[in-house]
Amino acid sequence: MNVRKGGVAIKELHVISTGQQTRAQFVSIIKDIHPYIDFVHLREPSWTDNEMIEAINLLIEEGVPRNKLVVNTRVNIAHVMKTYGIQLTNESMDVTEVKKFYRHLRVGCSVHSVKEAIDAAGHGADYLIYGHIFETGSKRGIAPRGVKQLEEVTHNTTAPVIAIGGITPENTQLVLQSGASGIAVLSGILLARDPLQAVKRYQECLAGGIK
């Protein structure tokens, strides 16, 4: 997380599957955009374990490095497939247990408050995903947490915080100014008319190129 280049921390771009695409569609897009992203998260609760393994194998066959792959909640698959890591929620396996039995996995935790962030980091989470920051279609009727609460989270934990939820190229710098170590994007890239152009625009924003 946050590799430094020339003394400056590089902000990360995480792409998370939308649950709205077939495995073939998802793999086809990731094949083209993976050179421009840091991590791809497979968050597909409707897929069986075999379907998840099939998708991981297809991604690897298309040249996507294992060290860019993160599996959501299914620790057994992350372990067997030797992916970079596992993303946990408050309903999945405890971070302490994962760190104890699967030491090779980088463990991320999805959090929604300062307390959850402090607890997850205190139990050994390598990074946190916090949100949702802005209004987003996937969270209709739920008030966004906003950049002020994001800033509280980043200032109260030592774990890197990846912001998620309604993040666009235009508001990326605002998120980074609140202390986030990167951003996570779903439909803004994967459902874009041109995912490759979309991911390049996000990268430009992460580098400070678009205000």
UniProtKB/TrEMBL annotation:
- Quote one Gene Ontology molecular function term: thiamine-phosphate diphosphorylase activity
According to UniProt, this protein's pathway is: Cofactor biosynthesis; thiamine diphosphate biosynthesis
What keywords would UniProt list here? Thiamine biosynthesis
**Residue ranges of the Thiamine phosphate synthase/TenI domain?**
15-189
Task: Provide the transmembrane region boundaries.
Answer: none
Q: Which Pfam families match?
A: TMP-TENI (PF02581)
What SUPFAM superfamilies has UniProt attached to this entry? Thiamin phosphate synthase
Q: Which GO terms describe its cellular component?
A: cytoplasm
The protein's matches in PANTHER family, at most eight in alphabetical order, are given as:
THIAMINE-PHOSPHATE PYROPHOSPHORYLASE, THIAZOLE TAUTOMERASE
The name under which this protein is listed is Thiazole tautomerase TenI
Question: Which organism encodes this protein?
Answer: Lentibacillus cibarius
